[in-house]
Amino acid sequence: MQSKVDVLLGLQWGDEGKGKIVDFLAPKYNVVARFQGGPNAGHTLEFDGIKHVLHQIPSGIFRNDIINIIGNGVVLDPVIFKKEVEALDKYSIDVRANLFVSKKTQLILPTHRLLDAAYEEAKGKKKIGSTLKGIGPTYQDKVARQGLRVGDILSENFKKKYSKLVERHLEILSHYDTEYNLKAVEEEFFGAIEFLKTFDLIEGEYKINRELSSGAKILAEGAQGSLLDIDFGSYPYVTSSNTTTSGACSGLGVAPNNIGEVYGIFKAYCTRVGGGPFPTELFDEDGERMQKEGNEFGATTGRPRRCGWVDLPALKYTIMINGVTQLFMMKADVLSIFKTIKVCTHYKLPDGTVSDIFPYEIVDQEIEPLYKELPGWNVAIDKIDEFEALPDELKSYIQYLENELKVPINIISLGPDRTQTIMRNGVLA
Ligand code: GDP
Ligand code: IMO
Ligand code: MG
């Protein structure tokens, strides 16, 4: 009874609410697996009045009897991993029984973080706005075929391999004006490596495919968002992994024909943290109100998130790239403060052309968003628990988006808590 992997991923620039929905859906699955990114991610879960932020551990970890896998496509910082696991200690979760790490997962070394900071600093005004967790340099070493992987920590030569790579990093760093005390962080790093050894380090791709063959239901949890994808995002203002559906295949060892549903998750508006283009960004009072009402501050870095209206050309693009089969709309409650809701339907390019294509030139050109206005609902909705009870204006907004995007919106999220979630169409039942 071969099963398929369903994929949940962000359709914008990250922070769409992936953590909340993975936790919400997890009881319908046997396995939750992260397939890319690393501690640049901050996935927030809220239930029983407590807020949790996960960075590398999959968001199924709070549900009983669910296997969580960190896949080969991830870049793992062992120091942050140790802290994350220790933060879970006070809850009655058997982390070691429920969490597995692929031996092919790449390791983030302390010098990767130093390189990240040095490269960013050198970019001056063209900073990416990296989270400085060492993501870019670690993926660089992976592609350069010189990275260290989790499986390497079991080898007797690990320290030797480590020193060889660090030597290369220090040579590069000597060309930058950086100060560091490597000794202090190395001690913590090797302590965390010993800690990581106490976990089940596995052949992730075999585990996942065996689970699939036995009919287990698997949910792949994306990190970042599709517009941060290394190939299809707003390059070079992107992260260093494939955040799109294909990343789930290469990041877990799943064949494309074993992908089932693709859940595309988006905010009822749009945010971005870090540098780079954002056509619908608001620089006025509306943007400030959105940021305040949505509590738009980064879960990993605490940085304020830039805010703007929903962008249909960008959403149509990421739905296409990902093969999205179902949409989930988050944070509709935040828009309750507005009398009018705007939706960007097209872009006007500098030469006067109007288009609904997310253009290659997005980074270098001033693109003017063209808006359609819809009536707002302007009443509190965070306590509503069924679709029928939603205000008509919100139902019209949903219908308008569905008509434009040609994919059903099957979850509507009305607040950060697990319970503030409405399912419709019975598709997920
Ligand atoms: P992720 O990276 O995609 O998991 O998203 P983050 O956790 O970085 O950011 C989403 C933020 O919005 C978190 O603070 C969530 O608690 C919060 N959130 C999620 N869904 C909703 C919602 O429907 N309404 C409101 N008001 N907040 C939400
Ligand atoms: P989650 O999973 C939002 C952004 C950074 C920066 C760019 C590159 O919580 O949605 P990196 O550290 O990867 O080199 O940063 O990508 N970025 C995110 N923005 N949510 C995230 O993750 C992000 N992870 C990276 O702000 O602009
Ligand atoms: Mg986040």
From TrEMBL:
Residues the record marks as active site? D15 (proton acceptor), H43 (proton donor), K142
Q: Which gene encodes it?
A: purA
Residues where substrate binds: A299, T300, T301, G302, R303, P304, R305
**What PROSITE patterns does the annotation carry?**
ADENYLOSUCCIN_SYN_1, ADENYLOSUCCIN_SYN_2
Q: Name one GO molecular function term.
A: adenylosuccinate synthase activity
Report any one BP term from Gene Ontology: 'de novo' AMP biosynthetic process
Cofactor note from UniProt?
Binds 1 Mg(2+) ion per subunit.
Q: What is this protein called?
A: Adenylosuccinate synthetase
Q: Which residues bind IMP?
A: D15, E16, G17, K18, N40, A41, G42, H43, T131, R145, Q224, T239, R303
> One Gene Ontology cellular component annotation?
cytoplasm
Q: How is the subunit organization of this protein annotated in UniProt?
A: Homodimer.
Q: Which family does it belong to?
A: Belongs to the adenylosuccinate synthetase family.
Which function does this protein serve? Plays an important role in the de novo pathway of purine nucleotide biosynthesis. Catalyzes the first committed step in the biosynthesis of AMP from IMP.
A Pfam family this chain is assigned to: Adenylsucc_synt
- Alphabetical list of SUPFAM superfamilies matching this protein: P-loop containing nucleoside triphosphate hydrolases
Catalyzed reactions: IMP + L-aspartate + GTP = N(6)-(1,2-dicarboxyethyl)-AMP + GDP + phosphate + 2 H(+)
